[in-house]
Amino acid sequence: MTDYTKLIDAETWAFIDKTDSFYPPETVTFTVEQQRAVYDRMCAAFHVAYPQNVSARDETVDAGDHAIPVRIYDSVANPAALVLYCHGGGFVVGGLESHDDVCAEICGRTGYRVVSVDYRLSPEFFHPAAFDDAMTAYKWALSSFDGPVVLCGDSAGGNLCAAIAHAVRAGGRQPAGLVLIYPVLGGEMTKGSYVAHAEAPMLTLRDVTFYGNIRAGGSDVSSDPTTMPLADTDFSGLPPTVIFSAECDPLCDDGRDYRDAILAAGGKAVWFEETGLVHGYLRARHSVGRARDSFARIVGAVKATGANEWPY
Questions:
Q1: Which residue range forms the structural domain that includes residue 48?
Q2: How many CB atoms lie within 10 A of CB 189?
């Protein structure tokens, strides 16, 4: 059994306790709508003001039979790159509001345009709905912006960004970079961090299984790279990739294994295992020193890949 009292510092425990305070014991009995409401309230409690130079506007992307809401953040007149951001939330919760301040800060600190994607969620929409929406938003971004496009996302959003990068290798404009924050990538769930951190604060192995099953809607997606990028048999031709994993997270080894697969195929990839941090630590970037330092590295990775630089 992992002793988290030794791995996690006091600041991070305070963040965990504040997060947990929004989830009553009976949360497991809540409907999906009730769970979304709790998640939204929790995210709102951590929300910080935009950097002074950042503005945002909401638009929609035409996906044929439906519209995909997006939020566009700008801080300079002529941004040098665009960041397509896919939010986390297990493919079940989250949206434009849950990661609003994160996107605003990435925009303010890089000077890049950031586009946040409100992809369809499960269980109303099973796979490949979220992937299809993310892909449509990526193609829209390419059509509306001439410069480099960086794919960035956390957790479920990291999964979507990686899946896009795999899918677009066949042709057309490629992403300038791929920045993944504690992503779920479809690793082996019977070993490594999935076992060592099966009962981690903030995200357990049961949670990972629960969200995965909801997204799949009863289908076997274990060999589908659009849901499980690590299931792909070819890791060549991927963009320069920077991965950030929380040490105290069942998903931790997914980041390491993804880096290793890209390097083995001759690509550029680097992996940061963020010591003592937990899943969801983006929301702790203003209250936890370790999270603040990691967010600086994340912003640096976005900035570098958008500028076609590789400082690793």
A1: 4-306
A2: 17
